[in-house]
Amino acid sequence: MALLEVSGLNKRFGGIRAVKDVDLSVQEGQIVGLIGPNGSGKSTLLKLLTGVHKPNSGSIRFDGREIHNWPINKRIKQGMAIVFQHSRPLHRQTVLDNIKLALLPDRVFNIHYPGDIEAKALQAARLLGLEDVVDAYPGSLPFGYIRRMEVAKALALSPRLLLMDEPFAGLTPSEVGELAELILSARHEKQAIVLVDHNVKAVYSFVNRIIALYVGAKIADGEPREVMANAEVRRVFLGKSMDEGQILQPSMASEPGGDNLLLDLDIESLKYGKAEILRNVSIRIREGEFASIVGLNGAGKSSLMKAVTGLVNYTGDVKWRGMSTKRMTTAQIIRLGIAFAPETRELFHHMSVKENLEMGGERLNRHELEARLEDVYALFPILRERVAQPAYTLSGGEQQMLTIGRALMQAPSLLILDEPTLGLAPVVLEAISEALLKLHQSRGLTILLAEQNLHFALKLSNSIYLLDHGSISWHGAVADFVQEVGDKFLV
Amino acid sequence: MQLFWEILVNGFIVSSIYALGAMGFSLIFGTAGILNLAHGAYLVLAAIVAWFFISYFKLPLPAGLAIGILASVLFSYLLFFLLVNPIDKSKRIPEEEKAIFVLTATLLWSIIIEGMLDYVFGSTPVVIPPFVSGSMHVFEISVTYNMIILAMISLLIIGLLWFAINRTRPGKMLLAASMSRTGVAIMGIELKRVYLLLWGIYGILAGISGVLLAAFLGASARAAPELTGMAFSIVVLGGLGSITGSFFASYIIGYLGTLTAYLISPSYTPLPAFFVLVVILLLRPQGLFGRF
Amino acid sequence: MRFSPSSRNLLTFCTLLLITLVCLPWFLSLYIAGMLTIALYFSVFTMSWDLLFGYSGEVNFGPTFLIGIGAYAAALLNVNAGLPVFACVLLGTLTAVLAGLLLVAPALRLRGPYFCLITLVSVLVLQEFITIFAQYTGGEIGMTLPGVLSASGMVNYYLALALVCVSAGVFLGITSSPVGLILQAGAQDPVAAESLGFNIVKYKVLAFSLSAFFSGLSGAMLVFYMGTASVSIVVSVSVILQIIIAAIIGGRRTIVGPILGSLFIIITGQWLQYLGQLDYAAVAILALIILLFFPDGIAGIILRRH
Question: Is C153 within the bounds of a domain?
Fold first, then answer.
């Protein structure tokens, strides 16, 4: 009998089916990686397993018991353990106290610490290489140690199944290797592990089985090499299979921009708390250029876009036409002529399509506003049909068009797009790609695109930056990218 | 039968004023995520300042009311600049505790306003003189023109607010901010501007409902916590952050209070509101109407 | 057991504080000792509040619901049923715990501001009830109690000090025990704490019950010391305010900090009395300044210097 047996699992959020009829089983001792592009439902699936979310239908059997409705703490007592991506440790207690917490029984009248808890906690700390920092406070430690502490806590529970959400996120490549090794050596060989991570490379070398998901459904399940060679998996990660030769020829051969430098970006470091997301990233964008930042999810693309628009803090500087934007508010940066279509879209959901567009043209007079609206409708005719509908009633593709349209209402000099293809059907993708091409070629709009869909990015851009683990590992013209890098960066 | 009509008419008037009173509270929560525990103090502040200028300086009624409302706007900005904004920007207060700090700060702020009002103007309840005199007979009962005017003004202001939010640029900016603050920032609109507008509108709304309430029921500094509690009950019943929900909830709370006042005793008036609140919190914390 | 530098600090600090409090009345006038007695009862309120705020992460805006129920239940039993003081105090305390568990504790299940709201409203409801049943409770004026704890000021002082020691002992014991660790973990990150196998609500209810027990007990003893039970002493919003301010000034999340805060606030309260009605406003302004500029309070500054 399998340790974990999931069948017909479904989860809906509002109208969106995040997980669709997923079946899977995990045997004792297996290490399973759940992968998939953003929005594939892998995190939701993990949350259903941990009990953070409850499924709408389907069954989760753990060790022969039906647990889909159990609260988290009951699952833990049954032999599960969880490592969350963002957990807040106890900052007023030492690392050792944090680990002791995991070893305490769930009894309200437990006034004394068990006598052997100190030894057990030290043992758990040693397994994860924390013996030198047991007396330190988590706040004083680098992020890699905090992640290890979280794993030590989970393993201290001696679970039969360990669930990990993005255990490698925010770690440097060397830290990723260290952590993977420590986990493998610390775990008991009968313990099973299920993990989700954007870092496909790390998952690939860590697991002995991969399950790939796409828009909520399972599309492949098996040996890592098999799964990563699967044509459909490659398609969902890269847009289209690299074997379909001709698509690698960029459809436009225009020169990569003029001499006029618009954006001059030098980010030394960008951190969320202690996790370093970007390191020494430099990007220059000339007027008329279409530049794409490609890379897997979790590589830091969105953070980079947020840094440009002043939504997150960083060290280094971003210059616009030679002027530093570091001290500016987001609104000031936008008013320089930089329009932003974020990954999360940030639409005004209960406002109509027209009202959303009008918010984009907030600084225009009536006349200009009408002209600009006409422009956007010409680019995305479907928006004209939906003009009075509230934004939340639109399909994903229409919402994306609205997001881009709203940005265009500002008549920008630079348009920044973050993952516009996320979770969209091929037809819609085509429409968006045509619109962007038109904007760039016939109107000379400068565009900065952050994209996981390599096919989409290659087809449109002049220049490519490959972002890998928070650093630019390659940059140059599209044709060179095809020859030198191709799809080899995936694993 | 006469009792029935009295409850119906009085309940409607009181509910309409409550609805206006709850608007500002709901707006500030929906847009800035702040539960303003000083809300009652703002209502009382506007009422007492207006009363003071009318009865001591013999200012004409509209001028007095305007000064009262102005006082409320002034204190609204003070709250934003002295407390809400500094706590939001503070690096020494942990991010996850900021909501609690703001909540505690508004409670302290409420006590400061109440204490000052008590000190400067005394603790006797004040009544704003009627806007118009005379009364009319309908449905076997007599209704003063003043009461009708009060209810009409309340509904008119609510209508204006609805219009401003849904039909004017600054209003839409507020509405948009309640849906996505990042969205507003990437439209090139300074969030600071949105907040200035928000607290200004809040001050005006609280001020107007304060003077209307005082013109109908009277007001005293001691009543501030009770008024805050009332606004809470309404907003929780309607669903935290939902302006439409608050509007309908006002009529439920208003009529419950009026029924209690007429059928049991006027001194029990606030009780049903609190009971409803406790029951709602225990059974259906998302409110009767949910969000939007 | 190893002691961290901060817990050694705490130990020294507690010992010094205790010695000072034991010796103080020998040097002071009866009037000042009486004032300190009130401050001691008050510090039990504040510590109970800090247990919830600092450890279980719940903001109780209605500590006087628990205090008031304890005090009024004890007083009513004494006046109407003529029970001995000891029995009244005991029954009053139990009533406070029971009322808290029935009316307020269910909100512990909910995330968000609901617990704050329901606690605030519970006080308003209690206040209404006291006014409505004025023929039993004395309404605004309050009621005079036939029973007293002791006629001697010294005995009263040491009784109050004993209560402070017992409650501080229990609170410090709980907060430094495994339960305290689990409570803090639940306050910090409830999902993470659940994922270590803890049923967090269980611990929150325990902390709430303890808080209710000592609030009720101290409220009941206070009215028998004062000889009267009235809204302004044990229920009103200004009492809540003083409790919150005392905890914040003293240093939240330290248990002993609130004792300092309470002594401070009762003494400055006396000193500020010449301001008349402005005294609460003045204290509130002071608290706001501390809240904004010294969010860790007095004890926070003393104890956290490793």
Answer: yes
Domain membership of residue C245 (yes or no) is: no
Q: How far apart are CA B65 and CA B236, in angstroms?
A: 30
Chain A's closest residue to C207, CA to CA, is A108
Q: Read out DSSP for B14-61?
A: HHHHHHHHHHHHHHHHHHH----TTHHHHHHHHHHHHHHHHHTS---H
Q: Domain count of chain C? A: 1
Mutate one of A86, A346, A372 to test the B interface: name it (highest B CB count within 10 A).
Answer: A346
**Residues of the domain holding C154:** 31-235
Q: How confident is the model at residue A247 (pLDDT cuts 50, 70, 90)?
A: very low
- Contact criterion met (CB below 8 Å) for B188 and B92: no
- Residue C162 sits in a domain whose CATH number is 1.10.3470.10
Residue A33: what are its φ and ψ, rounded to 5°? -105, 130
Decide if pLDDT at C2 tops 50: no
Task: Please name each of the domains of chain A with its CATH number.
Answer: 4-238 (3.40.50.300), 247-484 (3.40.50.300)
Q: C240: closest CA among B229, B235, B277, B77?
A: B229
Q: State the CATH class of domain B2-283.
A: mainly alpha
Across the interface, whether the CB atoms of A346 and B190 are under 8 A apart is answered no
Please say whether the beta carbons of A46 and A196 come within 8 A: yes
Average pLDDT over residues A241-270: 64
Residue B114 to residue C116, Cβ atoms within 8 A = no
B residues 251-280 closer than 8 Å to C (CB): 265, 267-268, 270-271, 274-275, 277-278
pTM of the model: 0.81
Per the domain annotation, does C276 fall within a domain?
no
Do the beta carbons of residue C281 and residue B116 sit within 8 Å? yes
Mean pLDDT, range C263-270, rounded to an integer: 81
Contact at 8 Å (CB) between C230 and C245? no
pLDDT in tens, C229-252: 998 889 987 788 788 888 888 887
In a domain, C63, yes or no: yes
Confidence of residue C200 (pLDDT cuts 50, 70, 90): very high
CB pairs < 8 Å spanning B and C: 111
Q: Is A174 exposed, middle or buried (0-12, 13-18, 19+ CB in 10 A)?
A: exposed
CB C202 within 8 Å of CB C81: no
